[in-house]
Amino acid sequence: MSADLTFGSVPPFYREVYEILCPNQEQVDEDLLVNLLLKSSLPRATITQIWDAVDNKSGFVNRNGLYKALALTALAQNGKTIHDKLLESYAGQELPKPSLGDLGDLRTTSVKLRREKNPNILGYNYRELCDLDAIKVELMPEKKGIILKHVEYEVTSRNYKTTVLRRYNDFFAFQEMLMLRFPYRLVPRLPPKKMMGANREFIEQRRKSLRRFCNLVARHPKMYDDKLVKFFLTFSGSDMTNKIKEVFRGIPDEFMTSNLASKAKELVPMDTQQQIQNSKEHMRMLYNGVTKMKDISEKLVMRATGYACDMLQFGQELSSFSNDATSVSAWATGRSETWHHLKKGFKHLSVEYAALGDKAAQEAGDTDSEVVEKLCLFQDLLLAYKDLNDRHEKGVLNDHQRAIAKMGSYKKKRMSATVNTAPEAGTVEQLEQKILEQESQIANMENRNYFSLHCLQMETQLIHANLEILYDVLGEMAVIQAKSHSEIGKVWSEIKPIVDNLHGRDNSRPNSPTRTSPIGSPMTSSGGGLPM
To answer: Where is 97: in which H helix or E strand?
Structure first.
């Protein structure tokens, strides 16, 4: 019964549904279309008829087939019976719109299904990763312990709509559990713990680092909705450090719970090792470049901060001049009124210089939060990628190689025991049993190795998805610098007429100022001696 849609005009709603199901303009998957039809609340028998009407026996339908299915669904909801010529009456008319409820969950289902169908494609862009969650980490007032003061952090999750209090040791325990749960994923580093003499600057930098740590975890496609992450972001009880270890002690790692573990070998392309080496070189280059960009951006912050302090201090000195109460008589000034005019102008100028300081301070703050912090976030991600590669090489790959070597040793012993003219009773049987056990371990390690390689590919794609951070960095830098230069330039333009008015003589200096001789006789600046 399958046929193309040849009657009626397509309403905008149809195109909206197609864009939800197929954002990349591909064909509509059978499972996805069935999910869509089930939203119509039609009887199963009717849905089957609609599917038969558009099914081309390939497991998917094209755009035309989707539009036809939508039209038939709308008509079935209006009590029409599905048949071949049902749509012919809509020649030249707009096709009917079906009732499918809220399309928001359809979008979620569509995205999820596409990712499941393509396990070797991450399927997330940077904006979608950011939408998973946003974590705020704020300092709480210091509390005094028995011996030392300790710092608490207020951790707020947008996704879970929760705010909890955490100490540094809680983050440390959380990371430890993450490493056990997700050994083949990007687990960020934590900032160092400074036991003594932690100044305000150190505490603030650590707060920012903990915020980056939380956001990278909460925006990871495999971690953000895991029970471990949810527990850390929502548990409000006491003794978090011990509680999280107690609840998740013995938690199986991702390999043990993933439905991809058993078919991991099929997911690893033949050239994976070469691709990993290429990616490591690329990530190393990125890390070096991002580190230099971060250092330069930090210098921009320091220069803007220094400029702000200088302008503020300059203005304070002008303000001090304006408030000077020292007695200055005509004996000192002669006929000059310069100091009188300057004092009046200094008061206005001090305000303008304070404004310069404010603008520069704003530039420093914006650059730090929108440029430096985002570069630090990406730098943390690249460091986590390096750590992941090290774990793969020193961990599962090394374990696999040791297990194979151990198997070889058992086989040599079995061979020696077999050819021995008088082998000990049970020796060969024991070696056979050990070989079987070792073969099972090797098979498990091989699967782990392939799963680790698959995860490495996905984590590499995660780095590339986060590369869009650099778009934000460049855009924010351009906006911040343009705004700051414009506003500071405007203030300087406002300062110029104030300076011009300081002279108090219709904004003009005398063309040939007079000065006084040592004996008090006036002389012109052009004269060469005493008047005759």
So the answer is: none
Side chain identity at residue 227, one-letter code: K
* Per-residue DSSP letter, 135: E
For the question of whether the overall pTM of this predicted structure is more than 0.85, the answer is no
Instruction: Identify whether residues 113 and 190 lie together within a single domain.
Output: no
> Rounded mean pLDDT of 21-50?
85
CA distances from 506 to 156, 338, 510 (A): 61, 14, 11
Pairing of strands 152-157, 135-139: antiparallel
Cβ atoms of 350 and 323 within 8 Å: the answer is no
CA dist., res. 323 & res. 346, Å (int) = 9
| Mean pLDDT along residues 234-257 | 93
In this structure, what token pair is assigned to residue 177?
Answer: 């559990």
The number of domains in the chain is: 3
User: 3-state DSSP call for residue 53?
Assistant: helix
Residue 136 dihedral angles phi and psi, to the nearest 5°: -105, 140
What does the pLDDT average to over 21-38? 82
Number of Cβ within 10 Å of residue 44's Cβ equals 9
Q: Rounded distance, CA 484 to CA 364, Å?
A: 10
Give CB contacts under 8 A, 24+ apart, made by 178-182: 178/217, 178/223, 178/228, 178/229, 180/248, 180/251, 180/253, 181/226, 181/228, 181/248, 181/251, 181/253, 181/254, 182/222, 182/223, 182/226, 182/253, 182/254
Angle between helices 30-38 and 44-54 (to 10 degrees): 140
Distance of alpha carbon 169 from alpha carbon 191, whole angstroms: 11
- Find tokens 């299915």 and name the residue: 69
CATH number of the domain enclosing 311: 1.20.1270
Whether residue 432 has pLDDT greater than 70: no
Instruction: Round to whole Å and give the CA distance between 376 and 488.
Output: 28
Domain that holds residue 180: 132-257
Q: Are residues 320 and 465 in the same domain?
A: yes
Tokens read off for 298: 């930090």
Query: DSSP 3-state assignment of 18?
Result: helix
Alpha helices in 98-142 (DSSP H): 104-117, 126-132
Contacts 24+ apart (CB under 8 A), 102-107: 103/16, 103/17, 103/20, 106/17, 106/20, 106/21, 106/35, 106/36, 106/39, 107/20
